Amino acid sequence: MAVSDLLYGVYERQLLGSLDRTRIPRHVGVMLDGNRRWAAEQGKSTAHGHQAGADKIEDFLGWCDEVGVEVVTLWLLSTDNLARPADELEPLLRIIEETVTDLASHGTWRLHPVGALDLLPATTAEILKAAADSTRNRDGLLVNVAVGYGGRQEVVDAVRALLSDAASRGLSMDELASAVDVDHIAEHLYTAGQPDPDLVIRTSGEQRLSGFLLWQSAHSEFYFCEAYWPDFRKVDFLRALRSYGARGRRFGS
Questions:
Q1: pTM for this predicted structure
Q2: How far apart are CA 21 and CA 27, in angstroms?
Q3: pLDDT tens-digit profile of 65-114?
Q4: Contact 138, 110 (CB under 8 A)
Q5: Catalytic amino acids?
């Protein structure tokens, strides 16, 4: 074993041991950013970068299991990404399909599609739905797979669902307008019934939200990591948890 590997292992154990286990986030959202730039710097194809990023996901979920995270939301494909050229989008969709199928076969994780499935190719949508159906009764880590996801689109879909529900119950627009509140909208989000994310991690050095969990992240803590997603290590994750645990959360106050 190389000296660097030995030192890395010691540092990793120190970080893990120093975590305050009473301040572990219940829900972690992750913006898996930097796959394309990582591939370009490696002199590899974009598809190679996306595959490298996909290969990191199972490790990451294992780290979340280890520390007791209950919910993870992985942003794999935005609604904006659906407009990418076919020669980039189609290989990415195949990688996502294979990744979701592999995660569903893990045996403990529950998968939940998060996004506008009607905007996706039929095959991709069917695989996401099948993964959710086959893992529905598991009691392990809940993994939201955000594919074809956009924060503004989610709010639009939630309002549409709210209006449709009101119409089915015979409510007038005046009755709905006088009764609707933030909880009613939250009940129609893709993540309805789940805790909002306590911590949102974005890799690749970018420091913006880009519409990720736009409604749910109102009181989230954010952690921006310089590493591209394929290079994201367990120590990077533990540093994010350490940073989160050291913060005094004010929830908007």
A1: 0.94
A2: 14
A3: 999 999 999 999 999 999 999 999 999 999 999 999 999 999 999 999 99
A4: yes
A5: 33, 81
